[in-house]
Amino acid sequence: MRPTPARRLAFAATLALGLGAAVAPAATAGPIQDPIPIQPNTYFYGLVNGKAADAVIQVICPGPISPTSTGHPLEGQTAEVRSIVPPVSSLPGYTGSGAHQIDAGLSLPSSTVANAPIVFTSFFAPAKIPTTWAVPCGGTSTMTFVPLATSTTARSYSVTVSFVNIAV
Predict the structure, then answer these.
(1) 76 in a domain, yes or no?
(2) What integer pLDDT is reported at residue 19 of this predicted model?
(3) Would residue 153 count as lying in a domain?
(4) Nearest to 42 by CA among 90, 89, 120, 100
(5) DSSP secondary structure letters along the chain
(6) CATH number for the domain including 40?
(7) Would you state the pLDDT for residue 91?
């Protein structure tokens, strides 16, 4: 018995829908994480330009450069904090018993003007590194992510950062 044209059409439609559903997940870039408010007793890590270690901040330092020269971060660079679900195998940060905010700032030589920290109130919410910050034109430093309000159980997280002058 030969299939009728209606059965052929139904089979072709079912096959097309099945193939479309099978291909659709491969085309996505992965799940998007909504921001989560920072809460006490949460493990976390920090990112600078998407890296949790050995990050680079591009700096604009026109003109002659000396070892004490400073410039400003290039537009479009980010910092972020992400929560981690235990168990954890490394030494992440920990918000402790009272934190609802994490501040991120650079450890810079005392001769450099103090920069206001980047304030995070949510995990998975990247923030721009301010282009108004004064930073070294080269070398390395640390961006430290500090839980606030602090407690005896709170622990900061640090990312090593290299400054690269793009104007040379």
Answers:
(1) yes
(2) 41
(3) yes
(4) 100
(5) -PPPHHHHHHHHHHHHHHHHHHHHHHHS--PPPPPEE--SS-EEEEEETTBSSSEEEEEE--S---TT-EEEEPTT-EEEEEEEPSP-SS--EE-TTT-SEEEEEEE--TTSPPPPPEEESEET--EEPPTT--EESSEEEEEEEEEES--TT-B-EEEEEEEEETT-
(6) 2.60.40
(7) 85
pLDDT at 111: 62
Mean pLDDT to the nearest integer, 85-93: 85
Q: In this predicted model, what pLDDT tens digit does every residue of 25-47 receive, in sequence order?
A: 444 456 778 899 999 999 999 99
**What confidence tens digit (pLDDT) does each residue in 134-157 have?**
999 999 999 999 999 999 999 999
Is residue 11 included in any domain, yes or no?
A: no
Q: Which range of residues forms the domain containing residue 144? A: 36-165
What is the number of domains present in the chain? 1
The reply to whether 3 falls in a domain is no
- Give the per-residue pLDDT at 84: 93
The residues, ordered by sequence, that sit 6+ positions from 76 with a Cβ below 8 Å of its Cβ are 128
Structure tokens at 55: 């990050």
